[in-house]
Write a structure and sequence with these properties.
By secondary structure, the protein is of the alpha+beta class. The protein contains 10 helices and 17 strands. β7 and β8 form a beta hairpin.
């Protein structure tokens, strides 16, 4: 399959999603009745809006018409079950929904394509200054990284800048720690509230790295492909849970092979693809080795350790 052609289609779809998001987005406003905000959990921490569902419906229609043999896995409104085909589109119609609801223009629409569990195409729409309604970052395996169809030259930092920008999740201090002297030289912290948006910033060279504590495929599928084609790299944590984490084993980062492992054709199911992923660190390949050894798992308290031991 010509992944570059698929990429161009994904970029068009992401651009269309951006137009729909513009129709629903009301900056500087506390009025959200038009969004019909609902919550997917009892704690009201996971909102979904009419913008989410409208975009998912439109994108699903486009993909199904153009690529009827491909699968679709979306965050909203799709309930596929059973074996997935080898090519699956991964959709997050609106990543950063809470920002969107509150009028903060830090959100994204993320469209990724997996082939046998590996990201091969990515397109991310984000709002951007002086670009109406925003820009689309897109890439496909072996074809480089583009913004609005323009090939972007690789930005290769020669070394890590302790005064440069970084993004971390809000839960970082609860689960991770900076090792040694790196804690005071880890970069200037920003929090975006959208994983796809933060991955876009790394790809563009605006931020140096991003730590993702845990995510779903629709949060990261597009971003992983785009970061790789921009000269970056994604590594995943290997001591994310279980007894090794309870004993405060340091976080060990290893290169990400695929997002769904192992992939068995005609056997891997949509249910397999709906689980949370391991923690992830993304950065340009030229500075990743300066960063990854300096981010480890935070020590378990005795209370947490006891809770873990008595839960197994």
């Amino acid at each position: 399959m010509d992944w570059h052609e698929v990429e161009l289609d994904a970029a068009k779809f992401a651009s269309k999603a951006g137009e729909i998001l513009k129709q629903y987005f009301l900056p500087h406003s506390s009025v959200v009745d038009h969004l019909d905000v609902q919550f997917k959990d009892n704690d009201n921490s996971d909102p979904v809006t009419l913008a989410d569902t409208a975009i998912q419906e439109v994108l699903s229609k486009y993909i199904s018409e153009l690529y009827p043999e491909h699968g679709i896995l979306g965050e909203e409104g799709l309930k596929e079950v059973g074996p997935a085909p080898d090519v699956v589109w991964i959709i997050d119609p609106l990543d950063g929904t809470r920002n969107f609801i509150h009028g903060l223009p830090l959100f994204a629409c993320s469209i990724g394509v997996l082939y046998k569990g590996t990201p091969v195409v990515g397109a991310i729409f984000i709002p951007w200054p002086m670009s109406d309604p925003g820009i689309v970052l897109h890439a496909s395996v072996g074809n480089g990284f583009r913004i609005d169809n323009e090939l972007v030259a690789e930005r290769k930092p020669s070394k890590f800048d302790p005064n440069g920008l970084i993004t971390l999740p809000g839960s970082f201090s609860s689960n991770f720690k900076f090792e040694g002297k790196f804690s005071g030289k880890s970069g200037e912290l920003r929090m975006g509230g959208s994983i796809a948006y933060e991955m876009a910033l790394v790809a563009m060279g605006i931020t140096q790295y991003a730590v993702i504590s845990s995510a779903y495929l629709w949060d990261i599928a597009a971003g992983v492909c785009i970061i790789r084609e921009s000269g970056g790299q994604a590594v995943v944590g290997t001591s994310t849970s279980g007894f090794s984490a309870a004993l405060n084993k340091p976080e060990l980062w290893q290169e990400l092979a695929g997002l769904v492992n192992p992939w068995v054709s005609a056997e891997t199911t949509y249910e397999n693809m709906g689980k949370r992923t391991q923690p992830m660190l993304v950065a340009h390949s030229s500075i990743l080795d300066e960063i990854s050894p300096n981010i480890g798992r935070k020590a378990f308290s005795m209370k947490k350790l006891s809770k873990f031991l008595f839960s197994v």
